């Protein structure tokens, strides 16, 4: 059973990101403020839901949240500031869109770069503990999946409609055969060390 809030007396926003371990595509993040009495049997950590359930849960969150927002950081920015900082920046961009402004942030994971002067709590596996973080995980994941499906149309070799940019065998084989695209994160190890040199040959 997921918890509805950390502190009932504060306006809390749950935050989570998606796509941190991918070779291609942006990192997405979402921030969600739910009513303190929100409950729905479907809402859970997005990794525990089927794809169909995630999209159903997204509709529920968007309809019933007090506020929600999704943001992204592009591959070029990821290469410039590294993926950890890019994950924080994506969350900051999502939080900045919220109205009302939250009084406290619940962050999935064990690290965060403070946003303005808002207090925050880092919660390991928070998407399996708090409803607002679970809601954010659903939004971040589904919006990122939608984006990867769109860019798959332009670059069908890489199977992004299936792997969503994660480092599968087929994805790496396509990078070896066709090279990297502007959507690939050049600062990531796109191929195993022995093969990496062939990328730029």
UniProtKB/TrEMBL annotation:
<feature type="binding site">
    <location>
        <position position="17"/>
    </location>
    <ligand>
        <name>a divalent metal cation</name>
    </ligand>
</feature>
<dbReference type="GO" id="GO:0003723">
    <property type="term" value="F:RNA binding"/>
</dbReference>
<dbReference type="GO" id="GO:0030145">
    <property type="term" value="F:manganese ion binding"/>
</dbReference>
<protein>
    <recommendedName>
        <fullName>Ribonuclease HII</fullName>
        <ecNumber>3.1.26.4</ecNumber>
    </recommendedName>
</protein>
<dbReference type="InterPro" id="IPR022898">
    <property type="entry name" value="RNase_HII"/>
</dbReference>
<dbReference type="InterPro" id="IPR036397">
    <property type="entry name" value="RNaseH_sf"/>
</dbReference>
<feature type="binding site">
    <location>
        <position position="108"/>
    </location>
    <ligand>
        <name>a divalent metal cation</name>
    </ligand>
</feature>
<dbReference type="GO" id="GO:0006298">
    <property type="term" value="P:mismatch repair"/>
</dbReference>
<dbReference type="GO" id="GO:0032299">
    <property type="term" value="C:ribonuclease H2 complex"/>
</dbReference>
<dbReference type="Pfam" id="PF01351">
    <property type="entry name" value="RNase_HII"/>
</dbReference>
<dbReference type="InterPro" id="IPR001352">
    <property type="entry name" value="RNase_HII/HIII"/>
</dbReference>
<keyword id="KW-0378">Hydrolase</keyword>
<feature type="domain" description="RNase H type-2">
    <location>
        <begin position="10"/>
        <end position="200"/>
    </location>
</feature>
<keyword id="KW-0963">Cytoplasm</keyword>
<dbReference type="InterPro" id="IPR024567">
    <property type="entry name" value="RNase_HII/HIII_dom"/>
</dbReference>
<comment type="function">
    <text>Endonuclease that specifically degrades the RNA of RNA-DNA hybrids.</text>
</comment>
<keyword id="KW-0540">Nuclease</keyword>
<keyword id="KW-0464">Manganese</keyword>
<keyword id="KW-0479">Metal-binding</keyword>
<dbReference type="GO" id="GO:0004523">
    <property type="term" value="F:RNA-DNA hybrid ribonuclease activity"/>
</dbReference>
<keyword id="KW-0255">Endonuclease</keyword>
<dbReference type="GO" id="GO:0043137">
    <property type="term" value="P:DNA replication, removal of RNA primer"/>
</dbReference>
<dbReference type="GO" id="GO:0005737">
    <property type="term" value="C:cytoplasm"/>
</dbReference>
<comment type="similarity">
    <text>Belongs to the RNase HII family.</text>
</comment>
<dbReference type="InterPro" id="IPR012337">
    <property type="entry name" value="RNaseH-like_sf"/>
</dbReference>
<feature type="binding site">
    <location>
        <position position="16"/>
    </location>
    <ligand>
        <name>a divalent metal cation</name>
    </ligand>
</feature>
């Amino acid at each position: 059973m997921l918890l509805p809030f950390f502190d009932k007396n504060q306006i809390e926003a749950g935050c989570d990101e998606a796509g941190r371990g991918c070779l291609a595509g942006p990192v997405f993040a979402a921030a969600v403020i739910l009513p303190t009495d929100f409950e729905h049997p479907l809402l859970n950590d997005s990794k525990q839901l089927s794809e169909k359930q995630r999209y159903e849960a997204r509709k529920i969150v968007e309809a019933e949240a007090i506020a929600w927002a999704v943001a992204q950081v592009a591959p070029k920015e990821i290469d410039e500031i590294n993926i950890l900082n890019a994950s924080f920046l994506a969350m900051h961009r999502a939080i900045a869109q919220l109205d009302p402004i939250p009084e406290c942030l619940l962050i999935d994971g064990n690290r965060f770069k403070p946003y303005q002067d808002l207090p925050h709590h880092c919660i390991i596996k928070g998407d399996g503990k708090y409803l607002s973080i679970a809601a954010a995980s659903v939004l971040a994941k589904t919006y990122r999946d939608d984006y990867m499906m769109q860019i798959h149309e332009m670059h069908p070799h890489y199977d992004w409609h299936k792997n969503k940019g994660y480092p599968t065998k087929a994805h790496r084989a396509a990078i070896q055969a066709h090279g990297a695209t502007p959507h690939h994160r050049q600062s990531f190890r796109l191929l195993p060390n022995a093969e990496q040199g062939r990328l730029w040959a």
